[in-house]
Design brief:
With 151 residues, this protein is of the alpha+beta class. The chain is 25% helix and 29% strand. Helix 1 packs across helix 2. The strands form three sheets. A three-stranded antiparallel beta sheet has the order 1-2-3, with no helix packed on it. A three-stranded mixed beta sheet has the order 5-6-8. Strands 4-7 form a two-stranded antiparallel sheet.
Length: 151
């Protein structure tokens, strides 16, 4: 079994908390020492109470799912001696009402992979993506529909 953690820190900094006019800006700190400025999304809490340039939980959720998929894809490609030069994914998440709750109903991955030599067939690339999706710890942990959109 493994355990993972993050420290999330927020401070009021003198704002009048009771009137809901306080900054949602906060900090994520990870065990390796990386600090990430975070905030609520401006789509959820209007400016200036959100910090638009900070990462919001919804973006992080999409990025985490994309990252997990990519890491497994790269692993499976390397096992098959398929050399990947770059992998870029402009992933998107869609938030909607479902059963009276606001949820991210789906995440769409749009991976663009370049290879050192000839690219594998579309069938082999699809197999790699399928295997990555099946193996991804995060994809296996959520109800969100996750789809991979290949050319």
């Amino acid at each position: 079994m493994s355990s993972f953690g993050a420290e999330v820190t927020w401070q009021r900094d003198g704002a009048n908390f009771a009137d809901r006019r306080y900054s949602r800006g906060h900090l994520w700190r990870f065990d390796g020492g990386v600090e990430v400025p975070a905030s609520s999304s401006p789509h959820v809490v209007p400016l200036p109470y959100s910090v638009a340039e900070n990462v919001d939980p919804e973006e992080a959720y999409v990025a985490a799912l994309s990252s997990c998929h990519m890491l497994f894809f790269l692993d499976f490609a390397s096992r098959r001696k398929i050399v990947v030069d770059s992998y870029v994914d402009a992933a998107t998440g869609v938030m909607e009402k479902q059963d009276g709750k606001t949820v991210i109903t789906r995440v769409e991955l749009y991976p663009k992979v370049t290879y050192a030599a000839a690219a594998p067939t579309a069938e082999v690339e699809a197999e790699l993506h399928h295997a990555a999706h099946e193996a991804c710890f995060l994809a296996n942990s959520v109800k969100t529909e996750i789809s991979i959109k290949l050319d």
